[in-house]
């Protein structure tokens, strides 16, 4: 089946370029540097997209509140831009304001750097007129995702730094200090203690082991990306037992159901919503899944067959319910709610045991380091005495 092409992504407005895209602030706070659309590299686009994803949720919540209160879009954008202090987001909001004044579509402003999910929501809002609700839904979901990612980073940051520092210390002791003890033992005609020999053997094997692990991971990733291997039944069964696979399935089910439910609930027909997701979304997995479901829907297959794939089993049950009730959006939203709660519970469980495990690992490494350093030293002092 053929898919209709969306309009090409236009360049940034001049105001957006001036007010923050790849701009630097001088000592007095003025913004210097300009960037043309033709000169924007992929890395720069990713940087701007990352900044927008981090800064826009709270600003779009404010914009959504203003629109819900009856403020006109142009005035709401001007107010939100004045309340923003980040250069990139301020430039984007001012570009939106100028675009509205010029009769430009919201989704056409900065479409090459907008987060894909937000871009898709904006295009849906333009078709359905549900801009406040759609912006609010995107902002709330993005803020929640940012919250648990930040919590996970905070809990893991200190133990990971300790683990890294201890590992580097062990490498230095194993490669520089312990060999000196070996030479001293040989000069005295003594045999090296068993613990020291074991530690030296381990230290000598660590670099080769790391190389083997990295090469194995790279080879495994290359093999898995081969279409014949990726579609094989053996790999699918093996993948189900890999650590983190359940989290990936829950996250993808939640994200797919939420996006599709918002589009359908905003008034888009199912097939149009799926085509929009397939064409706009930059994440390959959701674009591929949307395209496959759209092809089955266009072929007239039952809903329960259209949504087959690597989803949480709850989705199949809710789709069967939707075939009876006729309310697909409600079934998708219920699936999204349950999978999101289950995903958050598992993330919370990981946060609970991550810090103690890392702390215990650091303690073990510190103990091994102390043993490998002090035992040879005291043995030598005893022999000399």
Detailed description of the structure:
- Helices cover about 75% and strands about 0% of the residues.
- The N terminus is likely disordered.
- Helix 3 runs antiparallel to helix 4 and helix 10 packs across helix 11.
- A hairpin with a 5-residue loop joins strand 1 and strand 2.
- It is mainly alpha-helical and about 375 residues long.
- The protein has a two-stranded antiparallel sheet.
- The chain is elongated.
- It has 15 helices and two strands.
> Percent of residues in beta strands?
under 5%
Largest sheet: 2 strands, antiparallel
Low-confidence stretches: 1-40
Distance between the termini: 87 Å
| Main sheet strand line-up | 1-2
Q: Helix tally?
A: 15
Which structural category do the helix and sheet elements fall into?
Answer: mainly alpha
Overall 3D form:
elongated
Gyration radius (Cα, Å) is 28 Å
The H/E string reads HEEHHHHHHHHHHHHHH
DSSP strand count: 2
Helix content: over 70%
Mean pLDDT: 75
Task: Describe the oligomeric state of these chains in a short phrase.
Answer: single chain
In short:
This protein is mainly alpha-helical and 385 residues long. The chain has 15 helices and 2 strands. A hairpin with a 5-residue loop joins β1 and β2 (31-32).
């Amino acid at each position: 089946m053929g898919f209709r092409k969306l309009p090409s992504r236009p360049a940034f407005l001049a105001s957006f370029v001036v007010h923050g895209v790849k701009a630097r602030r001088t000592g007095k706070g003025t913004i210097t540097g300009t960037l043309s659309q033709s000169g924007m590299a992929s890395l720069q686009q990713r940087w701007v997209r990352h900044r927008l994803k981090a800064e826009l949720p709270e600003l779009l919540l404010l914009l959504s509140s203003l629109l819900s209160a009856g403020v006109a879009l142009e005035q709401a954008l001007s107010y939100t831009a004045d309340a923003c202090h980040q250069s990139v987001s301020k430039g984007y909001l001012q570009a939106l304001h100028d675009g509205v004044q010029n009769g430009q579509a919201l989704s056409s402003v900065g479409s090459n750097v907008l987060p894909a999910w937000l871009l898709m929501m904006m295009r849906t809002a333009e078709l359905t007129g549900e801009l406040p609700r759609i912006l609010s839904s995107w902002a709330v979901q993005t803020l929640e995702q940012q919250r648990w990612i930040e919590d996970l980073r905070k809990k893991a940051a200190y133990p990971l730094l300790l683990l890294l520092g201890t590992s580097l210390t062990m490498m230095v002791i194993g490669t520089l200090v312990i060999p000196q003890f070996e030479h001293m033992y040989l000069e005295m005609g003594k045999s090296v203690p068993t613990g020291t020999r074991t530690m030296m053997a381990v230290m000598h094997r660590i670099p080769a082991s790391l190389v083997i692990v990295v090469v194995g991971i790279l080879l495994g990733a290359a093999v898995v990306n081969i279409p014949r291997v990726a579609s094989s039944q053996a790999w699918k069964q093996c993948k189900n037992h890999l650590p983190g696979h359940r989290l990936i399935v829950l996250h993808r089910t939640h994200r797919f159901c939420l996006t599709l439910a918002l589009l359908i609930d905003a008034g888009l027909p199912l097939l149009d919503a799926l085509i929009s997701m397939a064409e706009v979304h930059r994440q390959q997995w959701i674009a591929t899944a949307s395209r496959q479901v759209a092809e089955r829907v266009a072929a007239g297959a039952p809903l329960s067959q259209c949504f087959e794939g690597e989803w949480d089993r709850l989705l199949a049950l809710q789709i069967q319910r939707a075939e009876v009730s006729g309310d697909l959006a409600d079934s998708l939203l219920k699936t999204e709610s349950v999978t999101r709660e289950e995903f958050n519970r598992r993330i919370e469980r990981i946060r609970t045991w991550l810090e103690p495990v890392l702390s215990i690992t650091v303690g073990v490494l510190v103990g091994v380091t102390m043993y490998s350093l002090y035992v040879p030293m005291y043995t030598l002092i005893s022999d000399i005495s």
